[in-house]
Amino acid sequence: MERDKKSFSGGRKYKNNDITVYWKPDACVHASYCYRELIEVFDPGRRPWVDMNGADTERIIEVVNMCPTEALTWKWNDEEKNIDVSLNQTNHVRFRRPELLGSNENLVQENPVSVKIMVDGPIVIKGDFTFQYSGNKKEVKEGIISLCRCGASNHLPFCDGMHRKIGFEDK
Amino acid sequence: MNDMEANANKKPLTLVEVIDGGPLKITGNILLKDLKKDINDNPPEVFLCRCGRSGNKPYCDESHKK
After folding, report:
1. Per the structure, how many domains does chain A have?
2. What is the complex's ipTM, to 2 decimals?
3. Are A102 and B13 inside 8 Å of each other by CB?
4. Is A73 domain-assigned?
């Protein structure tokens, strides 16, 4: 049986061009922020009760974030934007219903890899990443590598301290 | 059943790639900091100079080809 595209497990979803709002009726405690704040979008007396054309995206996000439960949550339609979401977006699905981000969530990197350009020195890379050089490929887990930036290392691509000997200066 | 729509847009892990005879290419989720210059950025893709000759350090400007 084909599933209704507007439904998802435990509720319904509503889209505009920017975001999807998820409605999970079981979780509602009738705090009523949604329709008191934005009846143009959230009107319990209308069917469907959510009209995503009733306000701009920014305002819809603001009101969904007021919901004290996971009855109303939201995410960006552009998945890239769902990766680094600020904590004050309280009702983003990442914080309330991470299962809605899909099964690839375990591939998403939570902590960015730190890439530091040292003063007149190497590139120091720290974190979880794949490192690939001249045919080698290895997964680095919570690791740290230091790569030559002056071109004079005898141990390329790694730094061996030659930058100091040759007086490498990053102008 | 989960909403599987997200599967179409998966985010790869960060890849740090040494290009032979060229720059360092990094793609993914990074925080780039230059301790000498005022750089604090999270670009989705960056090419960093490895030859020491770029006029736009820390970025590659293809000077290695000259």
Report:
1. 2
2. 0.83
3. no
4. yes
